[in-house]
Amino acid sequence: MAITREHVLHVAKLAHLDLTEEEVERFREQLSAILEAVSKVSELDLADVPPTSHPLDLVNVWREDEPRPSLSADEVFANAPDREDEFFKVPPTSEVREP
Amino acid sequence: MAGLSWEPVIGLEIHVQLKTRTKMFCACEVAYFDTPNSHTCPVCLAHPGALPVANAKAIEYTVKLGLALGCEIAPRALFHRKNYFYPDLPKGYQISQYDVPLCGKGAFTVPEPEGDRVVGITRAHLEEDAAKNVHVGGTGGRIGGAAHTNVDFNRGGTPLVEIVTEPDLRSSDEAKRFLQLLRRTIVELGISDAEMEKGTLRVDANVSVRERGETGYRTRAELKNMNSFNFIARGIDAEIERQIGVWEGGGEVVQQTFDFDAATGKLTPRRAKEEADDYRYFPEPDLVPVEPSAELVERARAELPELPGTRVRRLEPELGFDLAEGLVASGRDRLFARTPGDRRAVANVLMNELAGAGVDPDAVDGDELGKLIEARNRVPRPVFADAIARSGDEGFSADPFLAEEATSDVAELGPLIDEILAANAGQVAAYRSGKEGLLGFFVGQVMKRTDGKADPRVVNELLRAKLSA
Amino acid sequence: MIDTLRLTAEEALGLLERREVSARELWDAYRAAIDERDGELHCFLSLVDEPAGEGVPIALKDVIGTKGIETTAGSKILKGYVPLYDSTVARRCKEAGLVTLGKTNTDEFAMGSSTENSAFGPSRNPWDPTRVPGGSGGGSAAAVAGGLAPWALGSDTGGSIKQPAALCGIVGLRPTYGTVSRYGIVAFASSLDQVGPTTKTVRDCALLYRTIAGRDPSDSTTADVPEVELPEREDLRGVRIGVPKQMVEAEGIESGVKDAFERTIQLARELGAEVGECELPLSVEYGLPCYYLVAPAEASSNLARYDGVRYGLRAPEDAYHAMVMRTRDEGFGDEPKRRIMLGTYALSAGYFEAYYGQAQKVRTVIRREHAEAFERFDVLASPTSPTVAFELGAKTQDPLAMYANDLLTIPSCMAGLPGLNVPCGLSEGLPVGLQLIGPQFAENALFAAGHALERALGFDRVPERLR
Prior knowledge:
The complex is a heterotrimer of chains A (99), B (469) and C (467). By secondary structure, chain A is mainly alpha-helical. Chain A contains 3 helices and 3 strands.
């Protein structure tokens, strides 16, 4: 399964990785090889096999609707790269929120 | 509205914030009009290693809502991750539901003057709300020109139900009627405040048009950011008109998203994104499936109130459709039921005076209100209005107001009316030459002189007699 | 004089209980060993200066969140990040009186089999410092093997506890999925990650597992755990051991590894075990590709939270999306990037069914194959790693060769099964590990079998060069 440069750039954008030119080329080669190896799973005809998304068959694990204390402002912002008053501050978003 | 040959096709997407005490996946209190970020924890700030645990109440509420919407409750529902980046989405994914939502297909019946409109429900699913971005600085605070963005995670993680309808609505009126009844249902279930101004109820509309008789659907546009039922109706009407214009002008409607601007009543198209979204949904591995037990579903079903649509039909024979719908949609029909007296008179007072005074119908003692309504023509008008305004007060009694009988004594009113007519000869002449609308003017004068205590029926009678004499 | 190279945690507990040594003396002994050897081995990413308690020390892999102690997961993107809360396992250790020595090195976000993917430099194998200690939990394994900690906790997604334990000649348990809370553990792949002990003996392993296991209301995917029994028996009478044919015949298994394994199986027979052959053909053939779809897919989503907004690294950029993209490119090393890309691809529109969807079905096949094997056997046995510890740099240029290290550990992980590594001999002077796999929740069976073999093998776990 050969991956094109466009594939790499599209996936990097979805994953929000601003790859360097060198990385784009290196990952293109490596991902092509890895994808070829993992594509092996498609050899099996598993049309009638249900998927396993979880190794344990647990259901209905819920929590009662009881509040517990939240963090203090000091804790909330202890690791914050930037803040303004009681907000986390980030560079401006460039588009209207979607969805 | 343009030509009769066009038929609008409308579907709605409704987001309802649930009124739980805590967030969907953590134990932080839902209280987002508080100091920013004061209701946050490692889970809703998406710190490394934090894990979600589902709120049982939110699941119960969603099941209830699903039942009220006639939905099939899924025997096994999954949470999925919807992946994308935005500052208000701390995990880089929203926990939502995808191909197996908690509530599947349903139908919600909206009574209309001529028969019922059955609106298909595609699904209703449970998810978590995003946090709040505040765009700061730049040119007028518009997003495009913001200098930076501030994020408040208090709202992030609030339980949210998304209801998606089939494209079964055929006019803005129908859409509005559906939403009013849906809102009433939600409020009565006690699962949400469902207030558009507060954002606890949010509605997007998908609008297209087609020629009557056509069976397929044409390209639709999505309308967002409409924060009242009236704006929704106006937005839909504007979009219908626009699309008809496009088709009739030989053009083609393209898929597009519009923001409705309440100030101008105009639709502004959103800038098209460079590429299609790819949310990479997959089952949330940090949560286990939800399998609502028969017991949970039956308990929720037993707790359902009689649905508003049914109540409109029950009241319609004695009140007519408009009053019946008005009472139910405004949440006054329960007060109506417990207020004795002439049915139409009671209904009218509830929809006019009581509504005008902004009284909470659930706080009113029906018996006291009934006494007041029964005496409405005997007590002076200002007294009646005052009494209505206070009818929701704790321990309200009608008696003190009933004591203030209106003056209907002809011996007292007759000379006063003569005096007023003599002082307004011009108006009397005008009335007699056909301007009968001036009757109100004379009534007003009498009321003014009697401090509103004159019985309006007697005043009317006397005035008519004297003026036509 | 406390010999930290030989002292087991159980012995250390006894010394403290009998007041033969003080907690301070014990702490100081390990600190002295760290001062002496960590410069070479680089097991620790951070050290705690003063003991916060009076119990036996413990080292924690740096993916385990510790309140007030920097937790980086071996990544530059979390450099300086100090958790606001204790992970459930860290809390349980504290409550049991264990005292954190420090945080051990790991491949970045636990992605790797050698610790060479740590952003802060690799750890080295105490048996031969030119070689890797395995990974991702190489720091924990090397610390225990090198006498820098009496025991340690690691995390295992596809072999990160078992494989380094094998390469360092110690005991390591990857518990049944859902028996140990993941709350507070920096996530790699949620449906696979499990925390478990790295110890000198099987009994130590059972003791530490007993401390950390149990249902946790903060982790929806945990289950109730059967009472943990400390193993006593020294024979294997009545124990049915299955040897999956495809796991001993797999390509790439070194002959020295095979020899040590076969000698151990012979010993098991002598101890009274009924040994038979079984089949896991699809699990062995498709386990690795299945893992390298499921784990990266989940990782691509789990690592999306590192966006420079609330904590961690932030690259200076004047627009939000640009900031996030730059932060992630600068903050993540090659391996996380590779797996994020791979996982994003596997989940993306048009590829989901062929990759992630299909891999989930393969997972069902792997579960079924194992379930079938456990109809006839109590425990399955195989080598843990196809090779002994390899030299640093030997596989860093070839991701696929590195991934192949986990060939034998991965299948049972995909099925959520417990696996125990017990050192079973040497090949070329380096430790070889035996992997014992059990059905879900059968940790006690693994401890019993592992303990009996450990006694009979008499493996000297102190690295030859340090004796």
